[in-house]
Amino acid sequence: MPEDRERLDIREAADRKGCSPNTIYHLVQTGALASELAFVVGRRGRVRKHLIRVEDLEAHFSTEETERYIAAIDASAPPLTAEQKARVAAVFKSARRR
């Protein structure tokens, strides 16, 4: 198990969570996932990288965080109309016949 103070760059964080580096970058840019900017030595000299604490990464992708995110979306969404419910039911019925 990694130490809490271990940090990952965006690509390593994406690999760890099985998602795109663009997803991690978006989370960092929107402030949903904390990171610190650091200069590291790369092939082209010093490179600026976002470093993400493993603890923060795990907390963001936890089931609790996901449940809160879904609840917030659900609370802000208007209820389906009767017409929308009928269309959704029709889609599922046609998919079941295949």
Question: Can you describe this structure?
Answer:
- The protein has one domain (7-97).
- The chain has helices spanning 10-17, 21-30, 54-60, 63-76, 82-97; strands spanning 7-8, 36-42, 45-53.
- The model has no long low-confidence stretch (mean pLDDT 89).
- The chain has 98 residues and is α+β, with helices and mostly antiparallel strands.
Give a quick summary of the entry.
Helices cover 56% and strands 18% of the residues. With 98 residues, the chain is α+β, with helices and mostly antiparallel strands.
Tell me about the largest β-sheet.
3 strands, antiparallel
Question: What's the arrangement of strands in the largest beta sheet?
Answer: 1-3-2
Count of DSSP E strands? 3
Mean pLDDT figure: 89
Which structural class is indicated by helix and strand composition? Answer: alpha+beta
Distance between the termini: 45 Å
Radius of gyration: 20 Å
Question: Given the structure, what is the number of helices?
Answer: 5
SSE run: EHHEEHHH
How large is the share of residues in beta strands?
A: 15-25%
Give the domain tally: 1
**Silhouette:** elongated
Low-pLDDT sequence parts: none
Overall helicity: 55-70%
Question: What descriptive keywords fit this protein?
Answer:
5 helices, 98 residues, 3 strands
